[in-house]
Amino acid sequence: MKTLLVILGTLWFMTSFPFSGALAKEGALEEYVYLVKSERGKVYRIIEKITGDKKESVKKEIRRMELISPGTILEIEIGASVSLTCGGCRVLNLTHKDSPYGVKMEDFKKEGFTTSKIMEYFTQALNNYIHPDSKPGSKANLGTRGYPGVRKMGSCEDLWPPDNVNIMFIEPITFKWGLKATHFSLEIKEFESKSTIYSGKTSLRKIDVPVKIFGPGKRYEWSVSEEETGERCGAMFALLPKDESDRIMEIVNHLPTILPAGMDMETRCRLQAGYLVSEGLNYDAWIWLERNGISQ
Predict the structure, then answer these.
(1) pLDDT of 148 higher than 50
(2) How many of the other CB atoms lie within 10 Å of CB of 280?
(3) Residue 131 has pLDDT above 70, yes or no
């Protein structure tokens, strides 16, 4: 009887909290630190490389905001000083006199309370952090949203939003293209009904369209044509449901609160954009940077 009660209790816990088991399986609750800044020199991670019977140490430079796992050995250049922290932790300052330094989580003190779920989001954002030298689509993401099988019309360069993506329900929606001309016509149609919901002309290679003309959760086709040559291309996109956009924006707005005090606005925005990338929302990530005055 006692054994049966234990089994039933275990089954109840697993069905009542299926999400906690998934986190443990994926390792989302593992702890990491990251590099806040490095001044007057660089910091490297020391990697032991074995080639045949030979063992050697290889140095790899650590970038700002890059995750570092516990146990990693760091080498700090002479004259350099570095700052490390973890999510919701105080900043630990080190100099070349502390080198080599082995990362230990007990060196980092938590400040305040953060839930395991928001820490998971924070780690995802750091893993996908958009560095100044990053390029759209340069990092494959298995979570990319979209509808496979819908083909583009033509072969425009820098078509934005690109074909077959989901984008957030945020004002406004920016359309860009790479056609080289001076007179363009833009047309947007509902995917199912093929009815035109927007048409406009511009001499620029971009146009902002009010989000209110779209329906959340719906799919659309958009096309741009050059009036003189008739060259035309286009793509399909879909708007996220309103509640999904609101959920993601709530996380995006909360993430900067986990950063150390005094973190600059650009870093905050790049972190937020990184989370959007982790959600497969690459279009929104780059538009987020652009709207906050950050150019690549």
Answers:
(1) no
(2) 17
(3) yes
Task: Report the CATH number of the 165-242 domain.
Answer: 2.60.40.10
- The answer to whether 237 and 222 are in contact (CB under 8 A) is yes
What's phi and psi for 201, nearest 5 deg?
Answer: -120, 150
In sequence order, the β-bridge partners of residue 186 are: 200, 224
Q: Which residue has the tokens 């080498």?
A: 75
Task: Give ranges for CATH 2.60.40.10 in the chain.
Answer: 165-242
Beta strands at 165-167 and 232-239: parallel, antiparallel or unpaired: parallel
Q: What is the mean pLDDT of residues 63-80?
A: 96
> Going along 203-261, which residue ranges are E strands?
206-209, 219-226, 232-239
| φ, ψ at 290 (rounded to 5°) | -60, -45
pLDDT digits (tens, 9 = 90+) for 214-231: 999 999 999 999 888 888
Look up residue 126 and give its amino acid.
L
